[in-house]
Amino acid sequence: xxxxxxxxxxxxxxxxxxxxxxxxxxxxxxxxxxxxxxxxxxxxxxxxxxxxxxxxxxxxxxxxxxxxxxxxxxxxxxxxxxxxxxxxxxxxxxxxxxxxxxxxxxxxxxxxxxxxxxxxxxxxxxxxxxxxxxxxxxxxxxxxxxxxxx
Length: 150
Description:
By secondary structure, this protein is α/β, with parallel strands linked by helices.
């Protein structure tokens, strides 16, 4: 498992991380985004979706839980998932996310709600808010991501 960290000075730098992720993301991939409310999880997802071709701003999936994006609005199917409102892992089965991985990528906010061991091959990103308001991004890249993300 490869780990690393990056300082993000402002919201544009946070979106730029998402744009960079779009260069290496493909169907079957999972990226998890952890951090407190307002840290920038959705900003990373928005940058990624914009780089995949989405015109306009992607809404936060907080209320929908799963926001699907399909071609031609993006290059390949992507599900932007926000698990914040889930009570626990049992609620996850109803969403059908594992089946979606056959042809879509998943961007999952609040992955802790999925339980221990969910998506073991995911690129795990965590955002912390620094005392000065900047963001600190840390990651864990399993073998499937080690050559693609550093």
